[in-house]
Backbone:
């Protein structure tokens, strides 16, 4: 069964690279969703025995990450009219170099961390690289919607990291975390509507009214 | 009892969304916060009476209150009661005068009052859950819930500036808290062999068996995660924006109650680390970032042009002082907790007062608020009192806290830390003094437009007076029950010298 799990891990790493270079917003939303579903499939492969609770929970995660989140994101995209590309603040070659560098660094870090050994190769580096890709999307993409996407990718990474560590949280905690992530995406979606209505765009790099670094021309203060 | 404490604001908050009558909803807000305070008081009483100690002993897998949680719950509950009284008057005022943007003068709408009240009560429920949780997973989920529930509160005034602040707050805090989730996972891995999970009591009693390197990693992630929410520099960037753009009553709650809740998350991690013999490791990190926050806030206070941002930076300063005190250990932990109480009460009072100034002058610019004493004498008196209390001028309770931290720093022979601490406390005092005195006594250039005197509603004055009186009293006299509580909380955090 581990070969399957390892294939999924490789798939997730490749998805990170594609996320870093793809220019279309709708493709990015789909990629993040696919990554979430792949991550949701992982526990079914690694555990081996199909237990009822794990099955139900994985199904719930796949439903949330594969159906509900992309639906919310596509709705936000349509309502704000943000149909164009993702507006990267740095070039795609730079993005992919950063992503590859992150994977190299994660592999090194994963071999150094004194973590309990899981049977699946590369699962720790893959999770760390996914988290890094999420940060990359948040910091180097201009649109508010891509920042939410980055948040989702970070969540995917953390989920894989939790699987790698075998940390089994009580069901109540898991559900509370999922509820929080769901509400977070929901609230951020509402905030994006408001931003597009108020500013006529959702480019967060142009939201810079609140600052303590005043330019000389605001001398009226 | 704890269950009741959690469900009361939850149900009231949900009810507030569907109640259509404004007056009824406001009464619900007052009633629920009064009920919450009464329940909290009952918990304090149960704790004080020595024979019934077993009642308040932490019980249950998910929720329970120890001395530390009880202190923070007390702060939250008292603050919320004051905020509810203030909010009712504030909403009344907002209803009558439609909003005018303070900086650019355009007219904006407010969010529906039902949403505001509902989120306010749910926010209280989430903060209560933070203080009462005995499982670090639940603690995490509750802290994240406070972020999500307070975001609509910051965006009560619907305009660009508050929206920008809300977006930064949502994104920075959510991502920051995602890192704390990593910390939780590391912590779970550290206790994997023994099967502790994330139950606080199990982790504390078996702290020695935890895997040390993993525990260190867990602490770093938890510190960065909850530190973002607490506003420690350099993770503080969302804080001045959110505090300055939110309505004053929300700023008061964010600053006085929410930052403390995040601090509690860090304190829980410290509890486990010091149990495992890593107290020096955590102490060094807390001291470093505490000083960094103190320095950052001092520098930004000096050139500040917006008085609500000024108060926000002062909050960062106090968070730095609390982190520093906890990092130094020993008697300084007591000082830090005392400082937490004093800061919450006086900063909430100051934010309430800043709301009055904003209502009188319609601007947040320091340079345009002059002669407050002539225009609104009562507000000015509160503003100046608040200044003396927050800067720790004796006999403020904050003075006592700061002094205990100073004493511990000197006693432990950390002279560099002591020096930086004193210099930057001086800089913050000087920076605040210039601005507060100028606002109260200054004379506006040129012909002042005809200004009618500003009359404050009583409901917006009284909470401030009571908060300030409490801080003053703390300076003279710490009641025996509070002393015991602070001491047992200190013992929980660190087996100091």
Residues:
């Amino acid at each position: 069964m581990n070969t399957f799990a390892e294939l999924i891990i490789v798939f997730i790493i490749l998805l990170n690279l594609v996320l870093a270079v793809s220019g279309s917003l709708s493709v990015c939303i789909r990629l993040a969703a696919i990554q979430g579903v792949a991550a949701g499939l992982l526990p079914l492969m690694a555990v081996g025995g199909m237990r009822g609770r794990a099955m139900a929970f994985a199904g719930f995660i796949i439903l949330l990450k594969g159906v509900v989140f992309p639906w919310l994101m596509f709705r936000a995209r349509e309502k704000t009219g943000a149909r164009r590309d993702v507006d990267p603040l740095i070039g795609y070659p730079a993005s992919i170099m950063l992503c590859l560098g992150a994977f190299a660094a994660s592999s090194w870090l994963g071999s150094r961390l004194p973590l309990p050994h899981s049977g699946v190769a590369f699962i720790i580096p893959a999770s760390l690289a996914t988290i890094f890709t999420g940060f990359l999307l948040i910091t180097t993409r201009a649109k508010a919607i891509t920042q939410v996407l980055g948040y989702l990718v970070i969540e995917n990474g953390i989920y894989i990291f939790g699987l790698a560590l075998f940390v089994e949280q009580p069901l109540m905690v898991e559900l509370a975390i999922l509820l929080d992530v769901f509400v977070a995406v929901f609230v951020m979606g509402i905030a994006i509507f408001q931003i597009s209505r108020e500013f006529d765009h959702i480019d967060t790099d142009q939201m810079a009214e609140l600052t303590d670094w005043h330019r000389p021309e605001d001398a009226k203060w | 009892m704890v269950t009741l404490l959690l469900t009361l604001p939850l149900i009231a908050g949900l009810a507030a969304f569907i109640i259509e009558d404004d007056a009824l909803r406001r009464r619900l807000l007052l009633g629920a916060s009064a009920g919450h305070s009464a329940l909290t008081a009952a918990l304090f009483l149960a704790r004080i009476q020595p024979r019934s100690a077993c009642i308040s002993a932490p019980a249950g897998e998910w929720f329970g209150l120890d001395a530390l949680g009880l202190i923070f719950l007390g702060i939250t509950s008292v603050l919320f009661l004051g905020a509810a009284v203030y909010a009712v008057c504030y909403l009344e005022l907002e209803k009558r005068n439609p909003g005018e943007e303070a900086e650019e003068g355009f007219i904006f709408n407010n969010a529906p009052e039902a949403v505001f009240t509902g989120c306010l009560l749910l926010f209280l429920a989430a903060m209560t859950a933070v203080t009462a949780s005995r499982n670090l997973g639940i603690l995490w989920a509750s802290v994240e819930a406070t972020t999500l529930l307070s975001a609509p509160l910051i965006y009560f005034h619907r305009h660009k500036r508050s929206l920008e602040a809300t977006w930064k707050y949502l994104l920075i805090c959510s991502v920051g808290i995602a890192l704390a989730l990593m910390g939780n996972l590391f912590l779970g891995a550290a206790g994997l062999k023994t099967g502790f999970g994330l139950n606080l009591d199990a982790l504390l009693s078996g702290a020695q068996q935890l895997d040390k390197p993993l525990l260190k990693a867990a602490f770093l992630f938890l510190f960065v995660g909850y530190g973002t929410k607490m506003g420690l520099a350099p993770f503080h960037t969302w804080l001045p924006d959110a505090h300055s753009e939110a309505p004053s009553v929300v700023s008061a709650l964010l600053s006085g109650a929410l930052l403390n809740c995040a601090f509690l998350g860090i304190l829980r991690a410290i509890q486990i680390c010091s149990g495992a013999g890593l107290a020096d490791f955590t102490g060094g990190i807390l001291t470093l970032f505490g000083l960094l926050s103190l320095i950052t806030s001092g520098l930004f206070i000096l050139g500040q042009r917006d008085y609500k941002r000024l108060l926000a930076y002062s909050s960062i300063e106090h968070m730095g002082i609390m982190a520093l005190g906890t990092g130094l250990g020993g008697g300084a932990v007591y000082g830090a907790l005392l400082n937490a109480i004093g800061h919450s009460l006086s900063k909430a009072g100051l934010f309430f007062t800043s709301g009055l100034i904003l209502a009188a002058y319609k601007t947040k610019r320091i340079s345009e608020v002059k002669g407050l004493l002539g225009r609104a004498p009562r507000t000015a008196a509160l503003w100046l009192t608040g200044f003396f209390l927050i800067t720790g001028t004796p006999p403020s309770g904050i003075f006592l806290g700061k002094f205990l931290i100073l004493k511990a720093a000197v006693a432990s022979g950390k002279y560099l830390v002591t020096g930086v601490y004193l210099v930057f406390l001086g800089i913050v005092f000087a920076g605040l003094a210039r601005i507060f005195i100028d606002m109260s006594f200054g004379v506006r250039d040129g012909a002042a437009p005809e200004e009618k005197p500003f009359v404050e509603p009583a409901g917006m004055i009284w909470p401030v007076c009571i908060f300030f009186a409490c801080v003053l009293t703390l300076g003279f006299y710490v009641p025996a029950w509070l002393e015991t509580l602070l001491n047992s909380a200190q013992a929980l955090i660190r087996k100091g010298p």
Observations:
- Strands of chain B lie at 99-100, 107-110, 157-158.
